[in-house]
Amino acid sequence: MEVIRLSFDEIRELIIKKPRDFPKYSSSLLNLANYFSQATRPHIVGQMTELIKEWEHETSEYTFDSWREWYYRKRPEGISNAIEKIKDMLKNFKNVIEKIDDELIKKWVEDLVLTQTFIGLRFQEAIIKKLSLLTGKKYRMATPEEESKGIDGFIDDIPVSIKPETYKIKKILKERIHAPIIYYKKEKNEIIFDVSEVLRILKSQKK
């Protein structure tokens, strides 16, 4: 089997015959401005998958120029509205860049390298504290001896173990943890965790 790979830039040149021509870093900066301004969301530029299907149904000339002209007739304000939103966001970027000095850069780097590394190692404590606040129960973190048994902390007298969701698949490791497990998954800016097993035990203790 012979495998051929096509980059998006190659596809662009083969189909549209126009290379991407953006100054260095500008595309990344514009992508960021678009992300924050949401300038190319469907309510501004249209639902593109539906629009291109509509164009394909109406046209007999399947060229980029035909598609471009059809789009401007269908959504005459779409591109210009997106441009304005991106321009406004770039103005915000410019204002922020003027405020970035050595001290702010140092603060940001320390947060990335030191603070977030520490949080990444100690987020188990944050999960247990959050569960304590939600249930109104006292908590404590595990001792080194308890940690060696897979226990991360206690809610009242209930030991809890904190594991990633992928641990469910890795149970073939046959690690025996004699404690309810709180499963978590990391998303972009948050940790989502399942405390149903611990809550079930706490509820049963009330009976």
Walkthrough of the structure:
The chain is an alpha+beta fold. It has two domains: 8-97, no CATH class; 102-206, no CATH class. Helix content is 56%, strand content 11%. It has helices at 8-15, 26-37, 42-45, 48-58, 64-74, 78-97, 102-135, 144-147, 196-206, and strands at residues 139-141, 153-155, 158-164, 181-186, 191-194. Strands 1-2-3-4-5 form a five-stranded mixed sheet. α2 (26-37) crosses α6. The longest helix is centred in the middle third of the chain and has 34 residues, at 102-135. It is elongated.
What attributes does this structure have?
207 residues, alpha+beta, 2 domains, five-stranded mixed sheet, 9 helices, elongated
Layout of secondary structure:
Blueprint: H1 8-15, H2 26-37, H3 42-45, H4 48-58, H5 64-74, H6 78-97, H7 102-135, E1 139-141, H8 144-147, E2 153-155, E3 158-164, E4 181-186, E5 191-194, H9 196-206
Parallel strand pairs: 3-4
Antiparallel strand pairs: 1-2, 2-3, 4-5
Brief description of this entry?
The chain has 207 residues and is of the alpha+beta class.
**Overall mean confidence score, pLDDT:** 87
Characterize the biggest β-sheet.
5 strands, mixed
Work out the number of β strands.
Answer: 5
In which range does the helix fraction lie?
55-70%
Poorly predicted tracts of residues? none
Count of individual helical segments: 9
Beta-strand proportion: 5-15%
Radius of gyration: 27 Å
Number of domains: 2
- Strand neighbour order, sheet with most strands: 1-2-3-4-5
N/C terminus separation: 65 Å
Overall morphology: elongated
What class, by secondary structure content? Answer: alpha+beta
| SSE run | HHHHHHHEHEEEEH
